[in-house]
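Format notes (please read before filing issues)

Several people have asked whether sequences and structure tokens are stored in separate files. They are not. Every record keeps both together, in the order shown below: the sequence lines, then the token lines. Line labels are part of the format and must not be stripped during preprocessing.
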Amino acid sequence: MADIKDNETSVVPGEAVGTVAAQSIGEPGTQMVLRTFHSAGTASVVVSKGLPRLIELIDARKRPRFPSMHIYFDKGISSKYEKVREIWRMLEEVRLSSLIKGFDEDLRSATLTLNLDRDKLALYELTSRQIVAKLAKREGLQASAEGDIVKAKINKRESLKSTRTVFVHVLKSAIIGIVGISKAIIQQSEDGTFFIVTAGSNLEEVIKISGIDATRTYSDDPFEVNKVYGIEAARNIIANEIMQTITEEGITVSFRHVGLLADTMCSFGAIKGAGRHGIAGNKESVLARAAFEETVKHFINASVFGERDMLRGTAENILIGKQITLGTGRVRLSVRKSDIAKLSKK
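Then the structure lines:
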């Protein structure tokens, strides 16, 4: 979190902080590169960067394109590679399709024959017996192994289509790992301790694993953080991710503006985007909603349901040419009757 002094957060009463924040974030956003960045090399995970990531955060999209986690360990484990590797084996979701060289489908006998890849089995420290045991847990399926060949047979074949569907599900079935984590990479920090970076996120299941430090483990998916830790934690994730995305593009924006945006997005007790499906679309004022997007729809709905606009906000007063309650528009002068009487006598 950015370190801000008290005097740096002060504003003049009546200042249009929302407009200034929107300007401060929106204008630099037009300079950001339209690309999805990923680190070079084989030992990397793909992550969203730049403008696509900024849009993803501000629109509060429930399914980020490339969610990621940074997993940290307890002090007794973080410096021991072998123990970290043991946990790594529990994280990465390994599907059966990634452990085979090829397969053969016999639709008549409803039998799927798999040719296992020994190198892949050795990498994840798996055996053909473990795979057979996993497949045998599926209802209506028998599995057996001979060397590197595994056969899965459906007990009751109903149709060619249903048989083919079962085969597809078998190939996609997870053998080990946590659902949602497609890749996990062990990395070493400057102080010699190890941590894991993942492609995909499942914070709820990861923090259940013994040895993982739940207080430092980080997911960049705000909705997942909200589910596990609550709305305040999700607010921090949104603010930090927006700041990090902007900073990586070489752009400087004060945290005050980003913090205000994150506060507004989470002020309802749930995460809402800044667009027409979130904050802008839920405004009380009909004119304010119509000024943002889908003008005709909002006017038609307002007329059908007999809505009234009390003109309490900024956008709707600008539309009708009325003075807004910001800046000098917030000032109201009053004169005492006794003073008026004195002036009239003069």
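For reference, the curators noted about this record: The mean pLDDT is 86. The first helix runs from residue 17 to 29.
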